[in-house]
UniProtKB/TrEMBL annotation:
Record's protein name: Pectate lyase
MF terms in GO: metal ion binding
Residues in the signal sequence: 1-23
Lineage of producing organism: Bacteria, Pseudomonadati, Verrucomicrobiota, Verrucomicrobiia, Verrucomicrobiales
Domain of life: Bacteria
SUPFAM superfamilies, alphabetized: Pectin lyase-like (SSF51126)
Keywords: Glycoprotein, Metal-binding, Signal
Length: 429
């Protein structure tokens, strides 16, 4: 049968709308300033000049400005969110915490929810805490989370402590498009001391990172997890990603794990994950019966992971053995895993916000994680309470061009020190 041109066009349109959306490549980036497809030279520059929770010049109001933007900080100190988290709903935003003067920006009594595509979040301290609320009162913010169905999100060199749900999570909660959140990168962060017996409505609830709701292609690399009871991290069913070169210290119940299908979820695929080059160090009160680096089941690939209990005895790789894969089921293009010794050194030196000038909280967490004295806590008051920082101001002068290089220079200074990143040594004498 010969089809008319209108009918051919109708058939083509029907076919195109029935096809799944094309997925962009999943690529790892080693650059200090990740490229999410945003033209930084063309973006508007928004200056944060106030440490108030809301109003003119605040971080909250800056993120409401439509259009591609770089958010820079003319002030350093503590932003009390007053128990109202910040939602990032506008796409193409680069939040450059490295532009703040020392000691940088700390958010307390609230967290950040990323609900837009092409977001970079760097060099912030996020410390929700219990806000003085009663136990089981229902105050339960994450530190940083994705929500909806965002794609191409980098949470990089951030320090998140004292959350009441997860420290940093990747979620597809209520995606407006029906597409899952995807290409989420959690890189070089400190995720520690999520409060346990505190204000979460369920009671004890100390969690590190949750990947859920079908979220795909999540890269969790180079982070320090310390003193979170569970989810260090956890992948739920029908998710995918990699867990590479992280250090997990003093887990309460378990370290890395993935969900096991139940009778109600038997129709969902198991998580597709690659777990490579991680180090796990049990604390004195870590659950001794766990005795494993990984718990649960997955379509999983495992290589070069090391773990030790409180007495220095090696941990099993799997708590309950299951068939593992010979090749990673997923892997971001360009990611090269380090050995565990190199990973431990990288995390020790360079994880968290502004590691060249770590604040007292991060210094304590790192020292306790590697010194064997880390512990699970129920309130920030057990470890000195919310930080008190005298505000510091300066005026950020943003160049018209070559902003990527400018941001990289500032990032290198707060990561490596005033001289920035040293040049690579030649392999020849």
């Amino acid at each position: 049968m010969k089809l008319s041109l209108p009918l051919l066009l109708l058939c083509a349109l029907s076919l195109s709308t029935s096809l799944p959306a094309q997925t962009a490549p999943w690529k790892w980036q080693h650059a200090l300033v990740p490229d999410v497809g945003m033209d930084l030279d063309a973006a508007q520059v928004i200056h944060v000049t106030s440490l108030a929770s809301k109003g003119k010049g605040t971080l909250r109001d800056s993120l409401k400005v439509p259009g591609p933007k770089i958010v820079v900080f003319d002030v350093a100190g503590v932003i009390d969110l007053e128990m109202k988290g910040i939602e990032i709903k506008e796409p193409q935003v680069y939040i450059a915490g490295q532009t703040a003067p020392a000691p940088g920006i700390t958010l307390i009594k609230g967290g950040l929810s990323i609900e837009a595509n092409q977001v970079v979040l760097q060099h912030l301290h996020v410390r929700p805490g219990d806000a003085g609320q009663p136990k089981k009162s229902g105050w339960q913010p994450d530190g940083i989370t994705t929500s909806g169905g965002p794609a191409d999100v980098w949470i990089d060199h951030c320090s998140v402590t004292w959350s009441l749900d997860e420290g940093i999570s990747a979620s597809t909660y209520k995606s407006p498009t029906g597409e899952p959140a995807q290409r989420i990168f959690i890189r070089n962060c400190i995720i520690a001391e999520s409060l346990n017996d505190a204000t979460h409505e369920e009671g004890p609830h100390s969690k590190g990172t949750l990947v859920l709701d079908g979220t795909q292609h999540v890269a969790i690399a180079g982070n320090l997890y310390s003193s979170n009871v569970e989810r260090n991290p956890v992948f739920k069913l029908n998710t995918s990603g990699v867990v590479v070169n992280n250090v997990i210290a003093n887990p309460g119940q378990r370290a890395i794990h993935a969900s096991v299908p139940t009778a109600e979820t038997a129709n969902l695929p198991r998580a597709k994950i690659a777990v490579v080059g991680n180090a796990v160090f049990f604390g004195e009160k870590s659950k001794r019966s766990a005795r494993a680096i990984f718990e649960g089941t997955a379509d999983g690939y495992f290589k070069d992971n090391e773990g030790y209990d409180w007495f220095g005895q090696p941990l099993d790789l799997l708590r309950a053995p299951f068939p593992t894969l010979e090749q990673p089921p997923v892997w971001p293009e360009g990611l090269k895993a380090l050995g565990t010794t190199a990973a431990i050194w990288q995390v020790t030196r360079f994880a968290g916000a502004r590691p060249a000038e770590r604040d007292a909280i991060d210094r304590r967490i790192v020292e306790q994680a590697f010194g064997g004295t880390a512990r699970v806590i129920d309130s920030q008051e057990e470890v000195g309470g919310y930080p008190k920082i005298e505000p510091v101001t300066h005026v950020v002068e943003v160049p018209e061009k070559k902003r990527t290089e400018w941001l990289e220079k500032l990032a290198a200074e707060v990561i490596y020190g005033p001289e920035g990143k040293p040049k690579a040594r030649s392999s020849t004498p």
